[in-house]
Every structure is written in structure tokens, then in C-alpha cells.
């Protein structure tokens, strides 16, 4: 053996010994904690974003105290108020007028006064009504003004108010008393004495303006599981329109395809053997349909999302910044997530981006299902955005934010950790290219984005609201539906309206349609709507004129009137629709943002329907109108219980005004038709049930702004891609233990075993 060979073997032996020593020394030792580097605060705004901040619990309480002391009326806590009482129904932020805000944000204008919008139910008056007051200035209110007539061009009738929790308690007690009139029937059909049944409300509540009569569907109550999958075939119609709750009564009973005047008549039919009874066993905990309890012990853990050096975004109050983005966020108790003053690289792209409404419209051969058209804003999309579960609803290490609201109570409530913020790696290149010709190189950029998420539980359904901000200047809005399907009792030709998903359970077909407001300010407030699409033109090829060719060409159009810019749902629309600035980029094209919709919505309710105007926003996949301060929302919480005379009718917004070089708003509808199937048990999955839209820069920049991302990767054939200097991917962060806070969940703290709205 020569000396060189001996030295090589000695070196290998020493390396092996060193490796073994390292293993022995580190065996059983936890990896070092990941370093935490606080991100540099981007674009500090000096607290300007607080002009959009939701009211704090202290401010909400201050408004309540002011109203109690300055209206000269006896106000009952809404949590206990009868329809014949006066009460404070809700208090939330009164968003200042856009002109005032822009003078403050962009000029030398004064900060707009901070004000609240208070909704009061006046039942203890000769003319019961709903009144809205603006109260201010906060934090020490000194004035209130009635804005009802100005906002709605008249008083709001009392029957349009949403049903309160207290009303549901009274209704449920009435139903329970009525059920006692048919003890033998209940024992035979359902193995029940009526006390273990629960109900689900429907809406709207009648067939004409002024009605307040609701079908309630009865189910077996199932502890620890969704009762929505266990209908017993019994439904009752309750008239609850009178101010005197002692006059409320059960008007109609439905069972297994037959209608009865009351429960006593149903019992008589049963005792006379004139009733076809389907005998349903009471669900057993170990075999209940739709149980979400795990069936197996936990396996090995899955991938963990964490930031090796802490988050790369910064949250300051109601504002988050991330790689050039600045976003102000909030939550309306009724309509849900909303965002203001969205800027990229210091330039405002969107003044307001907000969810407006979520519609669920059902079909069935049972009265409750066939008449249901839920407008979830009236129930409270933001109010019922509960605490998020770390590691499942959002990444474990995400930033969680509390939201506060005051609805149906004189005491503010907090949904803690009900909004989450995180950076998401999509495990997909945002852009990339491998060059195999002329020169050899690879260049690319990971697709990461900032995500702001909330999840609303609206009785049986859970809606996941995502708002994403990409490193190329694009905004993505997406909603997924999950939770339990709503069902009817399977009888007759039930499968004409859905699918059988249990022994006696019909998963009923329905539409999910959501509506958004997007107040784009592309390179300034004044924009124009431009469209582009494709066409083919048959022509002689010009180099010999002997053959023909179908030449692809571009069709461009500038839309000048609102009627042109109202695109019917599911009808063809131009593939490119953009908000264009009068200013051009470096290449002479108008600086623009494109609206790109991803949706497979069902058919809109026929316009001949007497309630269609209440949801007339659903006529359009996209409608662009001139922005008006008196048109802040496409709907109203009062539309649910009086859709026949809607308080706000979106169709009235479209009146053919000019939209050239104006401050414009895009109103966007997305949705899907859901025909339930066996795989919706226990829950509808998010896979394939997501819709949304993009706001994409289109000639807004001179090149893709993501070229400035520090995450970019490039190496050529002349470099060693395994070295850090040539390729940052070659030097991942060393193994470390992320800082993960202890798992805690307080989502049940604001709840009790009292029934949710509409349940016994």
C-alpha cells in the first residue's frame, strides 16, 4: 500500500469517526429553536389605516350607553327583548365617505370623525319600525342622527327585521307544546316524546310583503354530530308576525307528503290508521349518520407549515404589509370580511374589496326545502365567523386576530382568533423556464402569497373566505363551501330534487351564489372599462396569395354605458375585461387591472319571481357601475324577510349612466350548483367546491414586478448549482424547531348549550 492510499483511508476513517461522534452527541437532543427575525415594517402609515378600523369593545359599549341615555325611550337588552319592546339590534363602524377618506389619506384633509352605525328595533311605538342612527364622534359620542330615510328612501317596516335569538326561543317553546298533542304518533314514527327533536329554520317567511310565517323542519337531535342528516319527516309552519307572542300559532303541519291543520289532526289520523307512518329508529351514537368522530388512531404527522426565521409579513393593528403589499382589513358582522386601501408598491389598486352576500337556494318536495332561499347576511356572515383551529383551519404558526361585534345584545362579544394571516407556499412555480437551446440555464420563482382567511359557520354550512395577495401584484379572492348538507325527508319522487344519502334522507339540490364589491382605483380614481376578445378572419396568405389562412385577431372595445357593462350570469362575456387608467405604461398601453372570474354558477331565479328583485345582483356575473356613496351595498339584511318589497334592489343601480373616466365599482357574482351525493356524508369537501376571481395587473407595469423578488432563482450550466452563491435553494435553513404556541381553543366560550338560531 503506497503512502497516498494510506492517507486517503486514514482521512475516510477520521470522517467516519467524526460523524459517529456527532450522532452520539446529538442523539435525543431536540433541534435548536428557529431564529425569529421580525420583518422590517414596510410603509408605515402613521395610523391612517385606523380610519377603517372596526369598533373596539370599549367603543361599542360607549355607543350603547349613549343611546340608552339620549333617546328618551326605554330600551330592553335585545337578548331578552320581545317584539313589542324597543332594543338595540346592532352597532358597527360607520365607514366614512370615500371623498373624506381620500382627502385624509392622500392630501392634507382632516381625519374623518369616527362614527358608529346603530340599528334599533322600535316595537314599543304606535308605528313600529326599524331605525338606523349614526352616532359620534367616538370615543365620546355627542350626537346621533337618523339616517334611515336617507339610506333607504323611506322608513323600514318592522316586519323586515331579522328574527332574533329570543324570538326563536319563543317559537321553539311553541313547537314543543304543539308536539305534545301527538304523543302516540311521535312514539311510533320517531321513537320520541318530542323533547329530543330539534328544528331548522327556513327563510323567507311567507309569500308576500308583511308575512312572518316560517316553516321549521324537525330532525332527531344527535349529540356530537350534525342533526341536519336525520330528518323525521315532520315540518311545521309557525305564524310569528304579531307583536304579542301569545298570539303566535302553528298554522300547518306536514308529514310524509301530507298536510294537516295541526298536530291534533295528525294524531287523530294516526289513531284511525289513516296515516302512512315511516318508522324511524332514534339514531345511536355509535352508528349515527354523518358522525365526524375519527375512526382510526392518529397516524404519522403530515407536513408542517412554518417560517424558519419568523413571518415575512407584518401586522400592525388592522393593517398588514408583505413584500410591497399594504392591506387594511376588517369584518362586518352582517356581510363578513372587508378590505380597504389595498396598495401595491405604494400605489392604491383597490379602495374597497368586500363580501356582500351569500345566497343558498334549495329545491325539494317538502315545504321547508322547496321554499328556502337563505340570504346569509341577514343571519350574520361576520358574526358567525368563529375561532379558527390552529393547524387545520389555518397553518399552526399563522397570525390569529380577534374580531369584536355587538349584535342582539347590549354587551360586546369577541370571536377570538377568528381571522388568520399567513404566507402560503403553493408548491408551484409562479414562473419558471428551463432553457435547452442557445444557452443552458434555469430561472424561476416559487409561488408564495399572503393569505387572509375567515370561516363562517351559517347553521349547517361552513364557508371559507380567502383573500390572497401574490408577488406579481395580483389579488385572488376565493370561497370554498364545506360543512353539512341540508336535507329533507325522503318520500315520493324525492330524487327529482337530489340524491338519497341515508335510509330516509334526501340530500337536496341547491345553489350557492356569492356577491362581492370591488372598488378598483387603477392608477387613480377615474377609470374606463375595456374589453378584449378573439376572432378569426379568413384571408389570402399575403406571400403568394394562392392559399387561405384563418388569421387570429384581437377585438378591442371600450364600454361607455352601465347597460353595456352588465354581463348576464352564465352568458358569454369577453375573456378580457379590464379597468383602464387614462395613463399609459412604458409601452403605450393603458395601465389596467383585469377581472378574471372562475365560477360555475347555477341558474339565477327567474326574473318573473316576486322575490327576484331582492337578489337581482345574481342576474349578473359582472356588473360595472359608477360609484355612489348612496349605493354602499348590493343588498340589505332586511331583504331576507321581505324579498317581495326589497329594501335594496341592486337592479336599480344599473341605469345606463356613462362609465368613461369615472370612479367605477365592479360587482362580481360567483357560485356553483350542488347536487348532493353519497360522498357529501359526513361533510361536503372543499375539493372542487371553490370559486372566485382574480384582479390581475394588465399592462399596469412595464414588466412583471416579481422580477424584483429576493426569492428568485437563476443558475446556468457554467455554474455549480450546489453552491449557495449560485443557488439559494442549495442552502436551505438548517433544521430547527419552529416556535409553536401551545394549542388552545376557545371557540365555544361565547356559546352555550342554548340552541343556535332556528334550533330547538
Plain-language structure description:
- The N and C termini lie far apart (90 Å).
- It is built from eight helices and 34 strands.
- With 760 residues, it is mostly beta strands.
Please outline the helices and strands.
Elements (H helix, E strand, L loop, with lengths): L2 H24 L30 H14 L15 E9 L3 H9 L8 E8 L6 E8 L6 E4 L1 H5 L3 E2 L7 H15 L3 H8 L6 E5 L11 E8 L10 E9 L9 E7 L2 E3 L2 H9 L42 E3 L2 E4 L2 E8 L3 E9 L2 E16 L4 H4 L2 E3 L23 E9 L5 E25 L1 E20 L2 E10 L4 E9 L3 E3 L8 E5 L2 E4 L1 E11 L5 E15 L7 E12 L6 E3 L7 E9 L5 E9 L21 E7 L35 E13 L15 E9 L14 E4 L44
Antiparallel strand pairs: 1-2, 1-17, 2-3, 3-4, 3-5, 6-7, 7-8, 8-9, 9-10, 11-12, 12-13, 13-14, 14-15, 15-16, 15-25, 17-18, 18-19, 19-20, 19-34, 20-21, 21-33, 22-24, 23-24, 25-32, 26-27, 26-29, 26-32, 28-31, 29-30, 30-33, 31-32
Shape: globular
- Mean pLDDT, all residues: 92
Q: Helical proportion?
A: 10-25%
- Separation, N- and C-terminal Cα atoms: 90 Å
Strand content bin:
35-45%
Please tag this protein with its features:
5-stranded antiparallel beta sheet, 26-stranded antiparallel beta sheet, mainly beta, globular, 34 strands
Quick overview of this protein structure:
The protein is mainly beta and 760 residues long. The protein contains eight helices and 34 strands.
Amino acid at each position: 500500500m503506497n503512502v497516498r492510499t494510506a492517507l486517503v483511508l486514514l482521512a475516510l476513517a477520521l470522517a467516519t469517526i467524526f460523524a459517529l461522534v456527532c450522532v452520539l452527541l446529538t442523539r435525543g437532543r431536540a433541534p435548536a429553536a428557529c431564529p425569529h427575525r421580525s420583518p422590517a415594517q414596510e410603509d408605515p402609515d402613521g395610523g391612517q389605516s385606523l380610519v377603517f378600523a372596526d369598533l373596539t369593545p370599549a367603543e361599542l359599549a360607549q355607543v350603547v350607553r349613549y343611546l340608552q341615555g339620549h333617546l328618551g325611550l326605554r330600551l330592553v337588552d335585545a337578548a331578552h327583548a320581545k317584539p313589542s319592546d324597543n332594543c338595540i339590534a346592532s352597532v358597527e363602524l360607520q365607514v366614512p365617505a370615500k371623498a373624506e377618506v381620500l382627502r385624509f389619506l392622500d392630501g392634507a384633509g382632516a381625519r374623518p370623525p369616527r362614527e358608529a352605525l346603530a340599528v334599533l328595533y322600535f316595537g314599543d311605538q304606535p308605528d313600529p319600525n326599524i331605525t338606523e342612527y349614526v352616532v359620534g364622534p367616538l370615543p365620546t359620542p355627542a350626537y346621533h342622527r337618523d339616517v334611515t330615510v336617507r339610506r333607504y328612501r323611506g322608513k323600514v317596516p318592522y316586519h323586515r327585521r331579522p328574527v332574533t335569538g329570543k324570538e326563536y326561543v319563543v317559537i321553539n317553546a311553541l313547537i314543543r307544546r304543539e308536539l305534545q298533542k301527538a304523543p302516540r304518533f311521535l312514539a311510533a314514527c320517531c321513537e320520541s316524546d318530542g323533547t329530543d327533536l330539534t328544528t331548522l329554520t327556513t327563510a323567507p317567511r311567507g309569500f308576500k310583503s308583511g308575512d312572518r310565517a316560517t316553516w321549521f323542519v324537525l330532525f332527531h337531535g344527535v349529540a356530537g354530530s350534525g342533526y341536519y342528516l336525520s330528518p323525521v319527516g315532520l315540518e311545521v309552519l309557525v305564524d310569528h308576525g304579531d307583536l304579542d307572542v301569545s298570539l303566535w300559532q302553528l298554522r300547518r303541519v306536514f308529514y310524509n307528503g301530507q298536510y294537516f291543520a295541526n298536530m291534533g289532526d295528525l294524531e287523530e289520523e294516526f289513531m284511525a290508521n289513516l296515516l302512512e307512518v315511516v318508522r324511524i329508529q332514534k339514531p345511536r351514537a355509535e352508528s349515527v349518520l354523518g358522525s365526524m368522530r375519527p375512526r382510526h388512531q392518529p397516524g404519522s404527522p403530515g407536513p408542517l407549515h412554518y417560517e424558519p426565521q419568523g413571518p415575512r409579513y407584518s401586522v400592525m393593528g388592522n393593517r398588514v404589509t408583505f413584500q410591497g403589499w399594504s392591506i387594511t382589513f376588517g369584518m362586518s358582522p352582517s356581510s363578513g370580511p372587508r378590505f380597504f386601501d389595498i396598495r401595491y408598491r405604494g400605489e392604491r389598486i383597490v379602495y374597497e374589496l368586500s363580501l356582500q352576500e351569500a345566497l343558498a337556494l334549495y329545491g325539494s318536495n317538502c315545504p321547508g326545502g322547496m321554499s328556502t332561499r337563505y340570504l346569509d347576511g341577514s343571519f350574520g356572515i361576520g358574526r358567525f365567523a368563529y375561532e379558527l383551529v390552529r393547524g387545520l383551519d389555518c397553518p399552526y404558526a399563522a397570525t390569529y386576530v380577534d374580531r369584536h361585534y355587538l349584535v342582539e345584545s347590549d354587551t360586546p362579544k369577541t370571536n377570538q382568533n377568528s381571522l388568520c394571516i399567513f404566507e402560503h407556499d403553493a408548491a408551484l412555480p409562479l414562473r419558471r423556464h428551463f432553457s435547452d437551446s442557445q444557452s443552458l440555464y434555469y430561472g424561476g420563482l416559487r409561488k408564495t402569497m399572503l393569505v387572509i382567511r375567515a370561516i363562517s359557520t351559517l347553521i349547517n354550512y361552513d364557508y371559507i373566505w380567502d383573500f390572497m395577495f401574490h408577488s406579481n401584484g395580483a389579488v385572488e379572492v376565493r370561497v370554498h363551501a364545506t360543512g353539512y348538507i341540508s336535507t329533507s325527508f325522503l318520500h315520493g319522487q324525492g330524487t327529482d330534487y337530489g340524491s338519497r344519502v341515508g335510509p330516509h334522507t334526501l340530500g337536496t339540490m341547491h345553489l350557492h351564489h356569492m356577491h362581492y364589491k370591488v372598488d378598483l382605483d387603477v392608477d387613480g380614481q377615474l377609470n374606463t372599462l375595456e374589453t378584449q376578445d378573439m376572432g378569426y378572419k379568413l384571408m389570402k396568405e399575403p406571400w403568394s396569395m394562392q392559399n387561405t389562412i384563418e388569421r387570429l385577431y384581437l377585438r378591442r372595445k371600450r364600454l361607455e354605458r352601465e347597460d353595456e357593462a352588465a354581463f348576464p350570469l352564465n352568458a358569454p362575456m369577453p375573456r378580457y375585461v379590464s379597468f383602464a387608467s387614462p395613463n399609459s405604461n412604458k409601452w403605450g398601453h393603458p395601465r389596467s387591472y383585469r377581472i378574471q372570474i372562475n365560477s360555475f354558477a347555477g341558474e339565477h331565479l327567474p326574473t318573473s319571481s316576486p322575490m327576484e328583485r331582492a337578489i337581482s345582483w345574481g342576474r349578473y356575473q359582472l356588473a360595472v357601475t359608477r360609484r355612489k356613496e348612496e349605493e354602499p351595498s348590493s343588498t340589505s339584511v332586511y331583504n331576507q324577510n321581505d324579498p317581495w318589497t326589497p329594501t335594496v334592489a341592486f337592479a336599480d343601480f344599473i341605469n345606463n349612466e356613462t362609465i368613461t373616466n369615472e370612479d367605477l365599482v365592479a360587482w362580481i357574482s360567483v357560485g356553483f350548483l350542488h347536487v348532493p351525493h353519497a360522498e357529501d356524508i359526513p361533510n361536503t369537501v372543499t375539493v372542487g367546491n371553490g370559486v372566485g376571481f382574480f384582479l390581475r395587473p394588465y399592462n399596469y407595469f412595464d414588466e412583471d414586478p416579481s422580477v424584483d423578488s429576493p426569492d428568485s432563482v437563476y443558475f446556468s450550466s457554467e455554474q455549480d448549482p450546489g453552491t449557495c452563491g449560485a443557488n439559494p435553494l442549495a442552502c436551505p435553513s438548517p433544521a430547527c424547531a419552529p416556535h409553536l404556541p401551545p394549542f388552545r381553543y376557545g371557540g365555544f366560550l361565547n356559546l352555550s348549550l342554548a340552541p343556535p338560531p332556528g334550533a330547538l
